[in-house]
Structure formats: C-alpha cells, structure tokens
Amino acid sequence: MEDKEEFGMFQVRIHGRGGQGVVTAAEMLSIAAFEEGRHAQAFPSFGSERTGAPVVAFCRIADREIRLREPIMEPDALIIQDPTLLHQVDVFAGTKRDAYLLINTTKSFEQLGLADFVRNHSAAHLCTLPATEIALKHVGRPVPNVPLLGGFAALSGLIRLESVVMAINDKFAGKVAAGNIAAATEAFDLVRTKMEETANA
Amino acid sequence: MLKQMEGSRAVAEAVALCRPEVICAYPISPQTHIVEALGELVKDGSLAPCEFINVESEFAAMSVAIGSSAAGARTYTATASQGLLFMAEAVYNASGLGLPIVMTVANRAIGAPINIWNDHTDALSQRDSGWLQMFAETNQEALDLHIQAFRLAEELSLPIMVCMDGFILTHAYERVDMPTQEQVDAYLPRYEPRQVLDPTEPVSIGAMVGPEAFMEVRYLAHAKQMEALKLIPGYAAEFREVFGRESGGLVHTYKADDAETMIVAMGSVLGTIKDVIDEMRDAGHKVGVLGITLFRPFPIAQVRAALQGAQRVVVLEKSLAVGLGGILATNVRMALSALPIDVYTVVAGIGGRPITKRSLHALFRKAEKDDIDPVTFLDLNREVVDKQMARERNTRRSGPAAEAILRDIGAQFGGIAAKVAQEAP
User: Fold this and answer.
1) How far apart are CA A53 and CA A30, in angstroms?
2) Which chain B residues touch A34 with a CB distance below 8 Å?
C-alpha cells in the first residue's frame, strides 16, 4: 500500500467464529474502501451459520471494477478474530509472502507458537491486538471485529481510521456506534504505537 | 447515487422504486435478505401504497401473486431452489394466464442431496414454464434488470424471473449506482393491465380449454414470448438514455473478435471468465466470451451470430441435465445447428463449488487443443467417485451414496471455507 500508483488488487481474508461479526467485518472493510473512492467486494464463505462454527469472509479492494468471484485463496492480509482457530483450520493457507497478519489475542506471535512461522516475515506486517478486551471495554460485548478493523487500518495503511468510522456509522447507530468508534480508535492508536516501536526496535 | 451495499438490499430498493402494490413471499435462503428488506420498507412506510403479505408456503406465495396480479396490482415475489419447485404448478399457471408478475430467483441448487449453495438448476428447471428468464452478471445488473423486467412483463402481459446467483451476488457487498425515483418513474409507466378482475366489468380468467383450442392458446404464449426478442434491445437502449449505463439486452460478447475459442456462460461467473480471458489474450490466446442475459426466450439468432466465427465453443454452465449433460449447452447447440463447430459442455460450480481462475485457465487451454470430453465436469474428484462406484459394484447393500462420499472426503459440515483454505496453493 506504500505506493498508491501501483495498486492492483488487495485481498483480505478474515477468519473467526459464528457470532464474532466476521461477515460484518468484511462488509465494513468494503464500505471503508468505498468511502475512499475504491472498488471493493465483500462476501462470506457461504457456510451454514452457527454460533461458534468456523467462519471465513473475504474482501477485495481495487482501483477498478472487481469482476473476480472466486474465494480468496492467496490473501495479501489475514485477520484472525479467534486464535483458537490456529489449531483447527489452516488459516494461513495460501497466504502471500509478507502478507499482513493481524491476530486477536493478548499474546505475542512467539507465545502463540508462531515464532518459526513468522521468522522471515516482515516485522512491519505482523501485529497482535487484544481486540476482544477492547470490545468488552467499549461495546460491552466480546465482538472483536470492529477493533480489529481499526487495528488493520493502522497496520496496513490501506484505509484511514475516518473511513472505518464512516463504515461503523453505516452499520450501527446510537450507543452501539459510539462504542464501536471508541473501540476502533483505541485499537488504531494501540497498533500504531506498537508498529512505531517495532520500526524503532 | 453510488452506494456500497449488499446485492439483496440493492434489489429490494430497486424493486421498491418500481412501486409494487403487492409483495407476497415466503423466506428461503439465499433469497431471504431481499424480502426481509422489502418487508422493512413496507413497514416503515417508505414503500407505500404496498401490501406485504406473509404467506405459509411458496405455493401460496405464487397463488397470491396470481390473484393480486389478476386484480390489477403490480406484483412481486422472490424465491429459490426447493421453493421454486414447490410453487411450480402455480408458476405455470401465472404464465399460462398471462399475468405480468416479476419474481427474483436467488439461484441455488436443488436437492437431494440438500445443498443451500449456488447453481442454476432451480431456474433452469422452469425454463419451459412460459416465464421469461434473465440472468444478472453483477449486482448492478440485477438491480437494473428488475426495473426493465416490470416494463417488459407488463407490456407483454407475461411473468419474468430475474435470476441472480445466490450468495455470490445476493450476499456480496459491492458498488451499485442506485437510481432515483424520478428516473424509474420516467422509465416505467404506470401499470395498465391487459386483463383485470373488476366487479364493475366482470370477466372470468382461466377457462378450461379442450383439444379444439389448446394448441392455439399455447401457440400465442410462444409467439408472445418471442416478441420479447424484438422489444428488449429497444428497452435496453431506452434504459441507457434514462440511467446512463448499459444494462440488460439479449447477449453480450467480450473480446470475441477473431476468437477461435468462444466460452458461453450466464450469471456472475462471467466476471471470473473475463479476468481469465484478459490474461489469456495477453498470452496470445484467441479466446472470447459470450454472456447470455436472456435465457427465455432463447436468443437463437444472436447466439448464432456471436459464435459462428469460432472454431469451437465451450459452454460453461452451473447446471446438469442428468442423463444428457448440459441445459444451456443443448440450447446453444440448437442455435449452432448445421455449423461445423465443436460444442463442449462443461458442468461447473454446481452446489456452490468455487469456479477458480486456475481451473478455468487449465480448462480453456485444454479446450483450445480439443483435449476435453464432450461433457466435462470441472474439478470433479474422480477418485472419490470411482471409490463409491466400486463399493456399489462389490456390495449389494452399499448404503446411501452422499453419506459415503462425505465420509470418504472427511468433510466437516459447512466446511467449504475450510476446504478452500486446505486446497489453496
């Protein structure tokens, strides 16, 4: 995303569980990208909807019309809303080299047992975020999707925080919207601080 | 106005702009979001006057639609899959009586085995029902086709199915240009029924017709449907004038000039095919695509004109005519009769199996060398099929096939995503 001129197609895959707002996250990401004048396509993995079952949703972002309708098999970015999926689903399948990886957890990549996996990965593209805790604090429910979007905006630079806020206002109203905006903002700031520390390390 | 929204919501808002007076529907995935959104628009008063009728089944949905349309109300409903089959008798009645109902079919597979995912077998099962059938490639086109459908249906006094891929389009968020009420009002005149049940001028609709006139009444249905082939290009041109974009029409070609191999398809898979065609063209392959927007009436002359310069035609369809091969391909063959062109049937994406660029690249490259079977099943897991066939040969009580195959592949319920993740390179 560093070079806007060469922007082809950016593909994001979001993994989570039924009830965590995985599909909504992909939809909101597409709304945020649309607000910035881009084309975006969000779609769910079309599985049966059951609370707790693994769910995948996708979002493509491009500067021209998106015609492709296949699932995202080689993501440029991966958002993992539930770290317990690491032991159940091959969430990293097909991930591009140095893809952005954002995981909802209070732990580090090392503590998750991913030290080897990320050894040669660009450190500037890796981040963990206690999104469930941030959501509980601001929204009162363990729904990590919106703080992860705020964090993703900071990590990738693909979308601005203001666009995420617009997407939140598109989907929610009143107290829920306000809580989610606070959660996204805290997550954005937290990830930006983390990434600055990484860059200076 | 440009908006980023779900396909179902876009269709619901477009239908609302068409000022339907009666909406009757029974929810079934993946159609549900459309009628839910319309229900909300009626309830909050933004779609008025309109009566939203909750019915107890799809059979009732179409029966109510028949009644309200015969009473002179602009009528809309939506369904999918088993729901369409359940209303089938009334579907034939709606067209036989000449009632201009518009119905969205959110295309989904038909069981058994039960499957909620996308393919075209539901709509294509009703191809001879007397309804016109249009297939949308994008959510923008789905939205636009509904507006054109009311106009066309009411002019011909025939019902129309607007078909859009379930989940792939209905549940996808993408950019759409939502027209204004003024634009739709300028394009779509007030409904003037050709026949109406009116107590002040009583008529009966639905006479019993014996051998002395049945053929003539049915011939008229055929002749009337064929009139759509003449009307649609004009309606599409008028649409372009009012709304400022191309939408609808009979067929559309892409990179078809000088193409030696032509791919034919319907619906959202055309987008993926076009991406593949672009890449193959860059590599020097002479391939093009024909997208069929109008499936009924089938635009035989336009299909023939678009394909007659090719050496071979690959019909990629999300449907299976069990015991024959393809449905779309059979129609395309009729359009190409007596021409020296090889036509291949490729059954792809049924039951929601993803149609990937990688598979299409391999398929089209093999097709160019005439190295595919006349009826090809894209990405068929031959090993699993052979195993079950052997089991059935060797064991009298071999048990239910679907369960056995699920055991063999170790599938988790609802495991498409996991499967996609596992199969990724």
Assistant:
1) 23
2) 2, 4, 175
pLDDT tens-place string over residues B66-107: 999 999 999 999 999 999 999 999 999 999 999 999 999 999
Question: Which residues of chain A have a Cβ shorter than 8 Å from any chain B Cβ?
Answer: 26-27, 30-31, 34-35, 39-48, 50, 53-56, 66-71, 73-74, 89-91, 93-94
Rounded to a whole number of angstroms, the distance from the CA of A199 to the nearest CA of chain B is 31
Strand partners, B106: B164
Q: Chain A contact for B67, CB < 8 A?
A: no
What CATH code is carried by the domain that includes residue A31? 3.40.920.10
Q: How far is residue A59's CA from residue B174's CA, in Å, rounded to a whole number?
A: 10
Ranges of residues in chain B with a pLDDT under 70 are: 411-425
pLDDT at position B410:
84
Domain-located, residue B170: yes
B267 is a domain residue: yes
Within this chain, do residues B171 and B278 fall inside the same structural domain, yes or no? Answer: no
Asked if the Cβ–Cβ distance from A68 to B271 is below 8 Å, we say yes
Alpha helices by DSSP H, B244-288 = 269-282
* Residue whose entry in the numeric block shows the structure tokens 């970015």: A77
Domain count, chain A: 1
Residues in chain A, pLDDT under 50: 1-5
User: A74: domain range?
Assistant: 4-196
Q: Per-residue DSSP letters for A24-80?
A: HHHHHHHHHHHHTT-EEEEEE------TTSEEEEEEEEESS-----S--SS-SEEEE
pLDDT of residue A50: 77
* pLDDT for the residue B412: 47
Give the CA count within 13 Å in the CB-facing half-sphere of A108: 8
Residue A162 gets the label, from left (phi > 0), alpha (psi -120 to 50) or beta, of alpha
Cα separation, B319 vs B329, in Å, equals 10
Phi-psi category of residue A34: left, alpha or beta, with phi > 0 → left and psi -120 to 50 → alpha:
alpha
Count of the separate structural domains present in chain B: 2
- CB contact B352 to A (< 8 Å): yes
Cβ–Cβ below 8 Å for A93 and B414: no
Q: B28 and B175 share a domain? A: yes
Amino acid residing at B364: F
B268 touches chain A (CB under 8 A): yes
Answer for the pair B306, B287: CB distance below 8 angstroms, yes or no: no
Across the interface, do A48 and B271 touch by the CB < 8 Å criterion? no
Q: Residues for chain B: how many in total?
A: 425
- pLDDT for B411: 60
Give the distance from residue A67's alpha carbon to the nearest chain B alpha carbon, in angstroms. 4
